[in-house]
Amino acid sequence: MRLLLVLALLLSTALAAAADPVPYRLQPELSTVGFAYVMAGQPVNGRMPVESAEIVLDFDRPANSRVAAVMRADQADAGPDYATLAMKGPEVLDAARFPAISFRSTGVTETPTGALVDGEITIRGVTQPIQLQAQFFRQQGTEAGDRNRMSIVLKGALSRQAFGAAGFGGLVGDRIDLTILARIERAAG
Fold this sequence. Notes:
Elements: H1 2-18, E1 22-26, E2 32-39, E3 42-48, E4 50-57, E5 66-72, H2 81-88, E6 100-111, E7 114-123, E8 126-138, E9 149-159, E10 175-186
Antiparallel strand pairs: 1-4, 1-10, 2-3, 2-10, 4-5, 5-6, 6-7, 7-8, 8-9, 9-10
């Protein structure tokens, strides 16, 4: 009887350890922040590299998941060269003074198709709340159930004016749509 109790305790400890949140490492060369905006009535796409990220995921209890990321505003590409220069300038991102944009999750809630990630994003030194819809996928070449290498697609939107990045408002719309592709792999440990 005592042996059964010890085995049950060991098994429950092993299962609890398996269910702990798992740290992941960003694959920055395979990840990007895409953004879309309207300029002179036409849709334009841009992108921004992700410098770093701290990612901890718990697929069994999403509320235990957390993400923090830093994107490089000073290395962003807004499409046309003149748009990129204007976007990095003092009227919009002011990338000389604020070279990075940061994000920190404040909550993760499971949905039928993925998760809602609530967080705070800081642009030009101004922090505002943001909500992103997340979907999780296995990376190409992985087996069903394998969570060692994942792709996460996050979508959301923000207002440029909310961050004081409202320059060229007569030409460029206020809404910025985000599509973030984060490719991650389980951290060695």
